[in-house]
Amino acid sequence: MDEVIEVGISNIEQADILKKSLRAEHFKAIIGEKKLLGDIVYVRAGHGFPMKYQGQIGKEHYFFKVRDMNLGLNTPIMNVPDNTISEQDRIDIKGKLHKKNTVIFPKVGAAIATEKKRILGTDALVDNNIMGLTVKDETLLPPIYLLEIMEAISLSEIANAGTVPSINAQIIKNIQITLPQKSLIYDYLNKMRFINTMLADALSHCCSNKNLNNSLINKVF
């Protein structure tokens, strides 16, 4: 591994530490109105995706599966699907679109432990192993801040214990959060944006190798 990549990885690791530290400090110290997530977001699971509809490309609607969340290009904004579906097929399977800016995460099985949270870059369907949270009033709660709220929550800790861990809508709705003033929200988001820019710059400078690039992205998001 050459010196440029080593320096780049060091910069990525330092930025990742800074990011996690900022998030932990922010959510520990914030003062504001207490809210239940169920009062400010719509909570809806994804839809079953029959095999005969899978593997299509270039159709009207994106259809994301859990594995799509592992792709570096979908970090943190989901824009690259392995599957698409036509409007007629969507009607046939009675699939409902999740709106752009919906925050998604795995809701069942070992994928919960990956702690991956993403945000939809467009209206899309998601499979039934995914939970979606859509902000009711974006003037009250910016969707990207909802993503940060979820990043501060351990999915593994809130999941139902069992042979197959799972997270249902009621668990999410009952999570209590503190909603600070808008000025504090945007100040925090601006700081996060700066750190994410640092991460993106470090990745672009050191990772010409596609596989290395993807693995590093997944390490820090």
From TrEMBL:
Q: Where are the transmembrane segments?
A: none
- Protein name, entry field: Type I restriction modification DNA specificity domain-containing protein
Family to which the UniProt record says this protein belongs? Belongs to the type-I restriction system S methylase family.
Q: What keywords does the record list, in alphabetical order?
A: DNA-binding, Restriction system
**What residue ranges carry the coiled-coil annotation?**
none
Output the GO biological process annotations, alphabetical, semicolon-separated. DNA restriction-modification system
Q: InterPro entries given for it?
A: Restrct_endonuc_typeI_TRD (IPR000055), Restrct_endonuc_typeI_TRD_sf (IPR044946)
Instruction: Please tell me whether the keyword Protein biosynthesis is annotated for this protein.
Output: no
Reading the lineage from the top rank, the first entry is Bacteria
What GO molecular functions are on record for this protein?
A: DNA binding
Q: Where is the Type I restriction modification DNA specificity domain?
A: 75-183
